[in-house]
From TrEMBL:
Keywords: Acyltransferase, Amino-acid biosynthesis, Transferase
Top-level taxon of origin: Bacteria
Presence of the UniProt keyword Protein transport in the record: no
Protein name as annotated: serine O-acetyltransferase
Protein's organism: Bradyrhizobium ontarionense
Broadest EC class assigned to this enzyme: transferase
Region of interest called Disordered, as start-end residue ranges on this chain: 1-25
Length: 326
């Protein structure tokens, strides 16, 4: 220990200490690295549009938006348990005010960051109007979420109460995020919607693109590893289990070989379908109403209504153009 240094203290290492003792030269060639990264960033591999640099949207702020909106939708479950008839509306109003102010700012910031004047929200008044339109849909959205909650209660024998599902089921968390993100996606706030979807993915392991259309009474049981693509369409009263993929089979390209964006490439799942764990359903195919898809099935063909598809049934029908009714 150096003379005068307090007992138990450690000397801080500074940049000047990071040298090779044999040559007394810097350990890292920072000047060269910084220069080469600048050249890559600004010239050879630039991905930024020219013009004013804007702040990106904040995932932390968007997480606050979702938290506040969820508290407004379900104030006694996610907000304050002791709310009563006299103060609950004040609480809901406050949480909505916080959420919508933050959301409007993030919508505006996202559009500026992308740098496209045609994106909704590029101008502040547009962002405010978009947020106002989004807010007007919240009461109807809550009604759909209640149908999802009831579907989970009916569909899972382990579920003992609505509160257990609402605050404890990852599938319910994911669908709350998705329904909010899907609204924003439809209004054109696509970067914000995508970030909200990724927040849900991080929290639950369930990856639903905000463009996917999902009917009422939707239930994801367990949920880890579920993937639902952008153009998927899911009807009412559909139940899926963990590790299910509703994905694309082919990625069409244009004459220059670039991927064509926005084409319908994910499955259509009609009403009252059950899809068991590990099933992989690919392409713009239709799973008919009332059908059941067994676990670990790989499916790339249409399924007529009221069919049961298993690995065994697929093996028995290899080469058949259509699945036969079970």
């Amino acid at each position: 220990m150096s003379h005068g240094q307090p007992a138990g203290s450690e000397r801080l290492t500074t940049g000047s200490d990071l040298t090779d003792s044999s040559t007394s030269s810097p350990r890292w060639d920072l000047d060269r690295l910084v220069t080469e990264l600048r050249i890559s960033r600004e010239e050879t591999h630039s991905i930024r549009k020219d013009g004013v640099i804007h702040r990106p949207p904040s995932r932390d702020k968007l997480a606050q938006v979702i938290s506040a909106l969820t508290e407004a939708l379900f104030p006694r479950h996610y907000g304050q348990y002791d709310l009563d008839g006299e103060n609950i509306d004040y609480f809901v109003g406050h949480r909505l005010s916080v959420a919508l102010d933050l959301l409007s700012d993030q919508i505006h910031r996202s559009a500026l960051f992308v740098g496209d004047e045609l994106i909704p929200g590029f101008r502040q008044p547009e962002a405010v109007e978009l947020t106002r339109s989004f807010a007007a849909e919240l009461p109807a959205l809550r009604g759909v979420l209640i149908s999802d909650l009831r579907a989970a209660f009916v569909g899972d024998p382990a579920a003992k109460s609505f509160p257990e599902i609402l605050i404890g089921y990852p599938g319910m968390t994911a669908i709350i995020h998705h329904r909010l993100a899907h609204l924003l996606y439809g209004f054109g706030a696509r970067l914000v919607a995508r970030l909200i979807a990724e927040i849900a993915h991080t929290r639950t392991g369930i990856d639903i693109h905000p463009g996917a259309t999902i009917g009422s009474g939707f239930f994801i049981d367990h949920g880890t590893g579920v993937v639902i693509g952008e153009t998927a369409i899911i009807g009412d009263h559909v139940r899926i289990y963990q590790a299910v993929t509703l994905g694309a089979r082919h990625f069409p390209t244009d004459d220059d070989g670039s991927l064509i964006k926005g084409d319908a490439r994910h499955p259509i799942v009609e009403d009252d379908v059950v899809i068991y764990a590990g099933a992989t359903i690919l392409g713009r195919i239709t799973i008919g109403r009332g059908s059941t898809i067994g676990g670990n099935v790989w499916l790339t063909n249409d399924v007529p209504p009221n069919n049961v598809v298993t690995q065994a049934s697929l093996r028995n029908k290899v080469g058949s153009p259509n699945l036969q009714k079970s």
